[in-house]
Write a structure and sequence with these properties.
heterodimer; A: about 290 residues; 16 helices; about 80% helix; B: about 550 residues; alpha+beta; seven-stranded mixed β-sheet; 7 helices; about 30% strand
Chain lengths: ~290, ~550
């Protein structure tokens, strides 16, 4: 009888535990709702519960939390990992990154500084340093750091060039010459038709009042691209802005002709229908002769 | 106590996911490399090919052949149109173990057999003629195209092999174009768990070795690939293994990065995006590139692929995860408006396929099955149907009704992970292993069908649908020559433009503007010789004593 009661108690105990852990698991799954990332955090938590002094596990869970956008938990785990003896320089980088993502730029700068002091400089860390300094409005230092990135990165991306040119202008808002030179050198590295760089070049030419060059840049897009209707319209809009209504009018006519040349399915797409309305609207706003 | 609880929790987790991810009989990388003698030359070469060959960045006139050897050596590709007469050679004398040779000057839509080696010997060839590339057709060509679509395949286990074999069975038994696979489209997470080089060897090269030698592989970056690859520096195994066009070499718009790019194949335009590392913001570099690229194509079909699914209730949830929501809310309105037809995603380890949709950018519970003209999110009379030509009817697109796209989350080519699988926008949701095949072919009525089939690991076709486009013969390839109005005529044979004036109307001036709006010719004559004007589009401004008007001509 005593034995049976004991077994019954034990059964009840295990059923209760199973229920509790099942509930725990479900709550975790619902809380995170990030598929296998949530599960991996839960798994890592179990590993930590079995090895609570293992700094590697805290670091690994910190990375998972960071991926999961739980920055305070990530930072807590990184700190814990550090306090348990993790001296790997990567830890400093991750702490810097989390501080950066939570917009604590001073703390982020301190951590990336520790990282850079600990070993060879790498482009990823220098890039983060430049971004932090940018947010701290230390534009000159940011520019120096980013220059290192641009000069040393093996496979540069258009986004890097855009960021670099943006910092150039932040450091001196009249230095369009420098910003455009950065774009041009990006085009040399990445290919002359890299779209995002050509678009940015156009912006800079317009912003710096280089109207002739800006119009040439519009012509570049018109000549380079298969479909020209959007470029003709954009050029017309710019021509209107710089008070060249007749040239704007001709560009609008070219836009309409380009639309007529399109396959019917493209003509009937909403962006093209909307473009036609924009063309009409701009045309009617132009002060021109008696065009019909 | 902790151990018991740990055991229970791990057991529960296993039921949820881990059972699907068990790595069964992982081949040893080195062992596979040396025990793959079928394609090696009879005389044992001193250098061994340990990876590949595999084909990258195919265009109508070029293809990149890549392979790896155990010892650094030169790179030589012998190729030709006849399998036993490889008379052409492309080579690189630099000593390397990572070989990359571009074959150029090829003819479009043409089969070239090849072997690989170094200056002194052939290192890998196929006696059965199964090592070849068929170059891409010219952009705009209408012909049969077959693409094999593999999402989240990289488990390197028997699940992945079963899915692969089912496709091989399918394509070998296909009644039309048997054995032909024009391309492989990988939707990311090609090698678990972190996309390392060794994991890629096990899960991609060892599994798909046969297909990679005769079909160009394209891919987008998955989150697991992104663990070892760094898009910020374009480094790591993913970027080392794949070679993608950054300067529009295969058509489309130059992105300047391998993270996102586009290419043309026949009359299909493919847009490959990075939903993992790259900014998904409206106005960001990838967004601006995509907008320009999609508004620059004149192709009949537009297919996009990126890893994170726009709609899913599988092992991921498109209502709660930021990347999924951002791709849906930021990219899809623009891409739908500009005519995207098919969206291929992975990430969730299931197969979920939508109705024929337009304009659904909210959460699953906001999906409205009504037709778009009634405020809903489905397109056409068949849009809420199953899309099967032999059932509810194919989805339809015409020159007048250009909306409508099918979204597929197909991430079960290596494992399944369940989930609620109840997204309202989905016509079909399956927790089953499989891959997809996309086939584009003429419908016999001047249009084309794009059909996608989900092929299970058991060889069965569990789902299929068709998008039909009618009246595709109306494509305008050249410029329209005739002036719009009847007030001027253009005689191309005599290079003369003549103005027809009404009554007492007197011509004062005529101005010709070229395709960049530059004034290139002025005249006061009613008949103007234009033989000196370069070919192209011109806007003509005509000023008479009564009015000013414009017209346009295309000079040949």
């Amino acid at each position: 009888m005593l034995v049976r009661l004991h077994i019954k108690k034990l059964n009840g105990y295990f059923i209760k535990r199973i229920f509790l852990f099942y509930a725990f698991f479900l709550s975790i799954a619902q809380l995170f709702a990030h598929g296998d990332l949530s599960i991996r955090i839960a798994e890592k938590t179990i590993e930590i519960s079995e090895n609570p002094n293992n700094f590697k596990l805290y670091f690994e869970r910190g990375l998972l939390y960071q991926q999961h956008l739980e920055y305070s938990n990530a930072l807590e785990d990184y700190r814990r990992s550090q306090s348990l003896g993790n001296t790997d320089k990567t830890l400093h980088y991750q702490i810097a990154e989390v501080h950066y993502l939570t917009e604590d730029y001073n703390a982020s700068l301190k951590s990336i500084g520790s990282y850079l002091e600990l070993g060879s400089i790498d482009v990823k860390a220098k890039k983060l340093e430049a971004q932090i300094l940018f947010h701290l409005k230390s534009y000159k230092k940011s520019l120096d750091a980013y220059r290192y990135v641009i000069n040393n990165m093996i496979d540069i991306r258009p986004e890097d060039v855009l960021e670099y040119s943006n910092i150039i202008l932040a450091e001196n808002n009249k230095n369009y010459k420098g910003a455009i030179a950065a774009i041009e050198s990006g085009l040399d590295l990445l290919g002359p038709h890299t779209l995002s760089l050509q678009l940015k070049k156009l912006d800079y030419l317009k912003d710096s009042g280089q109207t002739k060059e800006a119009l040439e840049q519009y012509n570049y897009f018109i000549l380079e691209y298969n479909r020209k209707e959007f470029w003709y319209y954009k050029k017309a809009k710019y021509l209107a802005e710089i008070d060249k209504p007749h040239k704007a009018f001709i560009s609008l006519k070219l836009a309409m002709v380009a639309i007529e040349q399109l396959d019917a399915k493209f003509r009937n797409m909403n962006p093209v229908i909307k473009l036609k309305e924009q063309i009409k609207s701009l045309e009617s706003s132009l002060t021109t002769k008696n065009y019909d | 106590m902790i151990k018991k609880s740990t055991f229970l929790l791990v057991a529960l987790c296993s039921v949820y996911s881990i059972a699907q991810t068990s790595q069964v009989d992982l081949p040893n990388v080195n062992a596979v490399a040396v025990t793959n003698p079928n394609d090696l030359a009879q005389n044992s070469p001193s250098v061994t090919v340990v990876r590949g060959p595999y084909l990258q960045s195919g265009t109508p006139t070029t293809v990149v052949v890549k392979w790896r050897t155990d010892i650094a050596t030169q790179s030589v590709v012998n190729y030709g149109k006849i399998s036993n007469s490889l008379s052409e050679k492309a080579s690189n004398t630099a000593l390397t173990t990572e070989h990359e040779v571009t074959l150029s000057g090829l003819s479009p839509n043409t089969k070239y057999y090849f072997n690989i080696g170094n200056k002194s010997e052939v290192l890998s060839e196929s006696d059965s003629g199964d090592m070849y590339v068929i170059t891409a057709p010219k952009a705009g060509s209408k012909q049969f195209v077959r693409a094999w679509i593999l999402g989240d395949a990289g488990t390197a286990n028997n699940n992945q092999r079963a899915v692969r074999d089912a496709y091989y069975d399918y394509v070998d038994a296909a009644p039309m174009n048997s054995g032909k696979t024009d391309m492989m489209l990988f939707l990311g997470d090609n090698a678990y768990g972190s996309g390392t080089d060794e994991q890629y060897q096990n899960a991609l090269f060892d599994i798909y070795d046969d297909m990679l030698k005769k079909s160009v592989a394209w891919s987008c970056l998955g989150n697991h690939d992104g663990k070892s690859a760094d898009s910020a520096t374009q480094s790591g195994p993913y970027y080392d293994i794949f070679t993608f066009p950054t300067a529009a070499q295969a058509g489309g718009t130059a992105s300047g990065t391998e993270a996102y790019y586009s290419f043309d194949y026949a009359n299909i335009h493919f847009i490959i995006l990075d939903s993992h590392h790259t900014s998904r913001e409206v106005g960001g570099a990838m967004y601006n590139w995509t907008l320009t690229d999609i508004q620059n194509t004149k192709q009949d079909w537009i297919v996009t692929l990126f890893h994170h699914p726009v709609y899913t209730k599988g092992s991921h949830d498109s209502d709660t995860e930021d990347r999924l929501i951002e791709m849906r809310q930021n990219f899809m309105p623009m891409m739908e408006a500009n005519g995207v037809d098919l969206i291929l995603n992975g990430h969730s380890h299931s197969y979920e396929r939508s109705y024929f949709l337009n304009g659904h950018y909210g959460f699953a519970n906001t999906f409205n099955p009504d037709e778009i003209s009634n405020g809903g999110h489905t397109v056409g009379t068949t849009g809420i149907g199953d899309g099967k030509a032999d059932s509810d009817g194919a989805y339809q697109k015409t020159s007048l009704a250009t909306e409508g796209a099918v979204y597929i989350t197909t991430g079960s080519a290596g494992k399944i992970s369940g989930g609620d699988l109840n997204h309202q926008a989905m016509s079909v949701s399956l927790n089953q292993l499989g891959s997809c095949v996309m086939e584009v072919e003429d419908d016999g009525k001047g249009g084309q069908n794009l059909t996608v089939k989900f092929i299970r690991e058991t060889d069965g076709i569990e789902d299929y649908f068709t998008i039909n486009k009618t009246a595709m013969d109306l494509k305008v390839d050249g410029m329209k020559k005739a002036p719009k109005s009847g007030r001027l005529s253009y005689d191309a044979d005599k290079d003369l433009v003549q103005f027809n004036l009404e009554g007492k109307e007197r011509l004062k001036k005529v101005k010709f503007y070229n395709n960049i709006g530059k004034l290139v010719k002025k005249s006061r004559k009613k008949t103007i010789n234009v033989d000196k004007l370069p070919k192209g589009l011109y806007v003509i401004e005509v000023i008479t004593n009564k009015k000013t008007y414009t017209d346009s001509i295309a000079i040949e």
